[in-house]
Design a protein that fits this description.
- α2 links the parallel β1 and β2.
- Helix content is 33%, strand content 20%.
- By secondary structure, it is of the alpha/beta class.
- The protein is globular and about 60 Å long.
Length: 333
């Protein structure tokens, strides 16, 4: 450096310092949001809107089945800022260690915000697409050559709800063989079905994943879409918002069995699915039928809790407005 003017050295030092400060200021704050896969379509719009009003914030959306969403916090211990699930009961069951002493809980509160209902989704290429109706859907899905898709009930709320719907349908249509014909006889390993006191309980094995056969299983309801669209399955149990948002045909189900009406909550409770998870202590093993209600929470381990609550409030406001196809229905006031 001999002979270099001192003024140039001083200017160089200023530029280095300035560059370092700019890099720090320009680094965005990353907000990690893990929603149920059935919300991915509306979450794209919510992400864009929040980022537009919050310069310097990068919202990262990562969809999973609802049980897997919670496991990101409880079992994998990731610093997730917002968890959004398709079954509000999962949050207290899996994230509250105790209802009395909240010390050590993964979260202390949650907010319900939207509803949905189960439908049977299909395309024009599905077998018997020209025959299926709201009245005969169970007969069509019972046919041996019809391939049915469900999401994994060990990981996703839509999966155990598919089991509940077919169980409730058996009672509704007075057809004792309906559950077995559509799903039960075709799940490997076999499931155990028990009826006691008017309640039907389905106990699942620890591992349940099928690529072939009459029933095909994917980790989340959103992952069934490609199977339906390519003909890998003829019909899939899906949420209404997902079927509409992705342009699928669908048949609606009676409100007594579609898990979409608070008026029939007492009927839904007669279907129970017992999960076979032994590996993860946080899993609430018994899922009881109830009306579909989405809920969101900010985990106690969130990296940016204040910003996370602001995002959650913004998200819930957007859902309360009822945005149309692809969005679940707002929660009634």
């Amino acid at each position: 450096m001999r002979g270099t003017p001192l003024i140039l050295l001083a200017l160089a030092a200023v530029f280095v310092l300035a560059a370092g400060c700019t890099g720090g200021d320009d680094t965005p704050t990353t907000l990690k949001v893990v929603p149920a896969g059935s919300l991915l379509l509306p979450m794209e719009e919510i992400e864009a809107g929040f980022e537009a009003s919050h310069p310097g914030v990068d919202v990262q959306i990562e969809g999973h089945g609802s049980i897997q969403c919670i496991r990101q916090v409880t079992d994998l211990h990731r610093p997730i800022d917002v968890v959004v699930v398709a079954d509000q009961a999962l949050i207290p069951d899996m994230m509250y260690r105790t209802m009395v002493d909240r010390e050590g809980n993964y979260t202390d509160t949650y907010t319900p915000f939207a509803t949905n209902q189960m439908v049977v989704a299909y395309t024009d290429q599905s077998r018997y697409a020209d025959e299926i109706t709201t009245e005969n859907w169970h007969e069509v899905l019972s046919r041996p050559d019809v391939v049915v898709g469900i999401s994994n009930p060990m990981l996703d709320a839509a999966g155990y709800r598919a089991l509940m719907v077919t169980t409730l349908a058996e009672r509704y249509y007075r057809d004792d063989g309906l559950f077995d014909a559509v799903l039960g006889d075709h799940l490997r390993p076999n499931v155990t079905v028990e009826e006691k006191g008017g309640v039907t309980s389905i106990t699942l094995p620890e591992v349940l994943k099928q690529e072939t056969g009459k029933v095909r299983i994917r980790d989340g309801s959103i992952f069934l879409l490609s199977l339906v669209e390519t003909g890998g399955v003829d019909y899939a149990f899906e949420y209404l918002s997902v079927a509409e948002g992705h342009g699928l045909k669908y048949v609606t189900l009676p409100p007594e069995i579609d898990l979409g009406s608070a008026a029939y909550a007492g009927d839904y409770e007669k279907a129970v699915v017992k999960l076979g998870f032994q590996r993860f202590g946080s899993i609430g093993s018994e899922r009881i039928g109830n009306p579909i209600v989405y809920a969101a929470t900010v985990p106690n381990s969130a990296s940016h809790p204040d910003l996370a609550r602001e995002f959650m409030d913004y998200m819930i406001t957007r859902f309360s407005e009822g945005r149309g196809e692809g969005w679940p229905s707002p929660l009634p006031a």
